[in-house]
Amino acid sequence: RKRNASCKAKLHDAHKKLFKNADAGKKEEAEKKFKEFVSGLDKAVKKGIIAKNTADHKKSRAQLKLNKMAK
Fold first, then answer.
1. For residue range 6-59, what is the model confidence (pLDDT) as tens digits?
2. What is the pLDDT at residue 1?
3. DSSP for 39-65?
């Protein structure tokens, strides 16, 4: 249970950093954080901490945020 909580906390932090950089317009930094976030989601799915559809939804939302930044 503690492992699950720490993994979810890391995901939450990565998500916040990604969106903070995206909102600030730091494209390169945001892309780097996006890769870390997606990697963390995939690992959490593999360990059974979050559901696959939940991870896919979060990845999709993060990708949309990055795509909006590019415009």
1. 999 999 999 999 999 988 888 889 999 999 999 999 999 999 999 999 999 999
2. 79
3. HHHHHHHHHTSS-HHHHHHHHHHHHHH
Contact 18, 62 (CB under 8 A): yes
Terminal C-alpha separation, the chain = 41
Write the single-letter amino acid at 30: A
**51 CB burial (10 A radius; 0-12, 13-18, 19+):** exposed
Q: At which residue do the structure tokens 């690992």 appear?
A: 43
**Signed CA dihedral, 40, 41, 46, 47: sign only:** positive
Does this model's pTM top 0.70? yes
CA distances from 50 to 10, 21, 42, 43, 53 (A): 13, 25, 9, 9, 9
